[in-house]
Model the fold of this input.
Amino acid sequence: MIKVGILGYGNLGRGIECAIREAKDMELCAVFTRRDPKSVTIRTAGVPVVSVSDIEKWTDKIDVLMLCGGSATDLPEQTPKYAAMFNVIDSFDTHARISEHFAKTDAAAKAAGKVAMISVGWDPGMFSLARCYGNAILPDGTDYTFWGKGVSQGHSDAIRRIPGVKNAKQYTVPVEKALAAVRAGETPTLTTREKHTRECFVVLEDGADAAAVEKAIKEMPNYFADYDTTVHFISEEELLRDHSGMAHGGFVFRSGSTGMNKEHNHIIEYSLKLDSNPEFTTSVLIAYARAVYRMHAEGMTGCKTVLDVPPAYLSDKSGEELRKSLL
Amino acid sequence: MIKVGILGYGNLGRGIECAIREAKDMELCAVFTRRDPKSVTIRTAGVPVVSVSDIEKWTDKIDVLMLCGGSATDLPEQTPKYAAMFNVIDSFDTHARISEHFAKTDAAAKAAGKVAMISVGWDPGMFSLARCYGNAILPDGTDYTFWGKGVSQGHSDAIRRIPGVKNAKQYTVPVEKALAAVRAGETPTLTTREKHTRECFVVLEDGADAAAVEKAIKEMPNYFADYDTTVHFISEEELLRDHSGMAHGGFVFRSGSTGMNKEHNHIIEYSLKLDSNPEFTTSVLIAYARAVYRMHAEGMTGCKTVLDVPPAYLSDKSGEELRKSLL
Done:
């Protein structure tokens, strides 16, 4: 059995707890929290909730520590820190800072003889795999990634910071016409506006100026100005009732040509339609935790990503079973 | 530079020759043939065509030998034989005999200290990867594989063996309604008939009985009896003009549930739309030839499949470049 620990009991931590129940070769040993452990109630009987200040006492009791913090401030500090004590895995998703995060984590993990896997989830994660396979197979081609329909936390937060806004949710929506053109092999050049639209559901503070809020959203640079944005004003009751779901998804395409005269076109499409973004992310994390355990058992050390992992390492089946049932 | 040899100059061999031009880290060194080398004209200037009887003289001049024979009779013999002399790669696609082919090839490659990669292409190959990732991430779920629209060589051959048939092409076509149900997360149980239809274009011999041929096709066990089959009688001119393309494709789905009460469903879809089946297959083979070369350079030996290969090994980019551009 692979002994798993969880650090941080938010959406991701709860998703890990749930996904472990499907993994017959894993057991949850402890949930570590920065809060008072007495204030945290988990859903698995018999598993202790432990203060993170006591985590060093667990170094020989945990095979893989799942880091469930956020990418903005938690993981840049936590992943290198805990890679010095445990095999770890995180879902660091700030694309622009992955190289820096990799370098720090790699140094810590190598020094400690541990494996640390970063940026596991669906983007980065499964979408990165789709891009890597697509580029390797069709070197003469074009990549397209579309996200949604799903809530963007960053864009929802940006709306909530506007004066007069009480609460808000923002959906990123891929443009059907653009998807159809890519699928048809037209290899279109798409502007930001042509790829996604943004749909906002906003609850105003009492007495706020709706027109001013709508203008502030639609003209916000980077976040909304380059998109066709729709703003709906709704009640807080409607927001909680109709927009609390965590569905998400997206599409990765590789469109490329082969042939002596590039006369043949090929479209590879990978898509996800997810009822629960955090639960799918944690399902990916659990599969890669198995790989972390195996890679460490084989003597590997240092920082790894999904690009470094043989697919068979994600499965609890033997090579022979996989060749028989899935190849 | 990775030195590549091709054994067999049919559709696959020509596809390899073409795909190598896109691989900046590879060079084609020789094409080996069972025919009289003088009778074989290849499209790359300066590359020798060599009789297969002289292949043993090339063992230190070739890094990876691409085996371009057929799965029925060529590869079961060729792959173990040449794995004793070279690192090899094949596209063996008889699913039911993969275990046997793996065992023989593994023994030969291990004894010789070589890497032999088998069953590389899109099914088995990229579709196997989609199934493996899908099963590992969503262990509580259902697999669906659909093929087409594309020509099935086996089914076309079966029609051509019917008395009175001069020539024929058979298309396997996925049923749109079934695709839609899977995509909608309905997790349908689908019979053979509900998944694919079969469309046949047949040229009759002079004086042949069309009704008898149509009956013979539609009632043929295994091949057609379990499907809704359409038969079109056309002229040989029409067949050559309209049905000589090698387009193909298909879809792999994993539909699975997560959540404490399995309340969330997720759909992973991987699909291919290919203008040229052999050219796409050879593009996959070329990417995996790079992996064969690297795995051998790292000291690995024995038989491998796509399930054993870290995605990064398929690319000519460094790990750092991949993390920056694709992760």
